[in-house]
Amino acid sequence: MTLLSPFAALLAAALAVPALLALYFLKLRRRPLLVPSTLLWRKAVEDLEVNAPFQKLRNSLLLWLQLLLLALLIFAMAQPASDAPAPTGARVVILIDRSASMAVEEGGRTRLDAAKAAAIGVIDAMEAGASAMIIAFADEPEVVQPFAADRGRLRSAVASVRGSDRPGRPGRALALVGAQAGGVEGADAASVYVIGDSPAGGADAAATPPPAGASLRFLAIGADTPNLGFTAIGARRGLREPGRVELFARLENASPGPVEAGVTLDAGGERVTTRRVSVPGRGGDGAPGRRDLSLGFTASPSEAVAVTVAHDRADALHADDAARLVLPAAADRPVVLVTPAPGSGRPANPFLERAVRAASRGPVSLLSPEAWEASAPAPPADALLVFDRHAPSRIPPADALFFAAVPPLPGLGLRPSSPDAPAVQTFLTVDAADPAMRSVDPGGVPLVRPGRLVLPPGGEVLASGLEGPLIARVRDADAGRRFLVVAPDPLQGRWPLSVGFAVFLVNALDELGGGGGVPGEGLARRTGESAEVRLAPGATAEEVRYAGPAALAAPVRGGTAVLPAFERAGWYRAEDAGAVAPDDRRLGVSLAAATETDLRPPAALDAGPGTAARATPGGAATVRRSWIPWILAAALGVLLLEWFVYTGRFAPAPATPPPPRV
Questions:
Q1: CA–CA distances in Å: residue 275 to residues 328, 367, 576
Q2: pTM score, two decimals?
Q3: Which residues, other chains included, contact 381 with Cβ-Cβ below 8 Å and sequence gap of 6+?
Q4: Which strand (E) or helix (H) includes residue 180?
């Protein structure tokens, strides 16, 4: 039991108890009066009215009843309450957070251990015959134990939950609850317990349908623990000086005050620089303080470089103390431009040829569509392909960029502009966050009858116009190829004459030649993500294996392998380095999640529109019950007893029968 307002009760006791006792210390000051008999005053004048002090306090049942009544009222003013086991119902769903922040140690045990203990408490408080489901979640949920009534099996399932370095997203776990246990009303509706420290909000909460008919309780684990960590990292080689590298990193401080730390940058296994930085504390709105770092260094343009940035401050969470990435070798693969030759009956495109030569770091060769179809001469095995207004009859053997044409993939097509559509159009939407469209900004550039793309399932729209997609990314899953397709004809309109077109070419060739993104940035892996790695040219391995904080393995299909999601942050190295492309022989994996660096547990769990569960601190599966109604009922009983005692003092004495006459 706890008293929510003890000081108010003490103040009331200090005022009321002495006042009650003073009434019993006072005595009546009587006026002398001659009467023939005092028999009638025997009961009526027994100190019912007082106006003089210093009467001797006598034992009185009324005094004790009034003191008891006063004590009960003062006790009620203290607002006594106690924690009782929360009712669970017939079906219980327990969600255990195993995200990176749950590895923080507090009070001699980790937050994950505290969450497991709270889950065991929920299981022990279940009603007889009730069943429970155990779900562990980080960024993705996993059903550890389906509904079962065997408490021993449920406890074993809780004990089997293991931590990870992945970010926490309880919204996805709640969506799984809605699919597994939602839609049941009445007595069979599930009681859902979310145990952890991960917040749900924004897109995570908006995509979470509240479980229909379920009661939601959030058992918050952890305290406001100071922490400093990296939440972002990226790097890019110089366009004209690929040996010059600029690295960007962000430090966030979730502590109330500013902190200082030493930041080190390692590249290729060697210490490059060390810097002392100060990171501000939380702002007035509670947001963590940030410090953006820009660190420049030189690296070999012909080799992939492993880069690590770390701080030396000792804090509660270690997974975010460093951030890692692999900086690929400068994209110097040869480029083959398949374009109509002069005198072939189709107009040549000198603008596109000059732009490709300017954007490429490797040699550029020209090939006519007729020569491509005849495969004479064959392009180099590692060449990047650019198709100008030519749709090949077979799927290209390498990654390729298409202008006003598409590869022969099922479901992919290019449609001309509608006759009713305006002849001159512009880009309406651009995915500026995508590496291929970063800093392109083609808004307002006129396009003459650009047409539109028809995309297969899985196609990614990068830019769209009035009639539909204009730029997209598609994949050939069987061969592991990526293609960027552009609907507008580069000879129509003024886009090829703009700076944005040159930037797009640089981005596109960097992505196709660098293995999946802007050099450096595209290879900053994060926990919870999977990675696609490529075999080295000529390699025929059936499986790739990586050693690191956790062992990884994946089968090879079409020259690529998709590794499972990373559970732990750190460096991973291919066991057979010769079988893997040079840029993929080492994989740098970072936590880089602001929601994990800020270790404060949320005050409530936003579970979707109109649904939120307030946090119960300490992870106790209890509800707070007030004692005030019971105390007031007892006080009413004492008051009634006091009234009966008081009125009984004035009851007439039973009549005494007269003595019999003799």
A1: 25, 51, 36
A2: 0.61
A3: 397, 398, 537
A4: helix 170-180
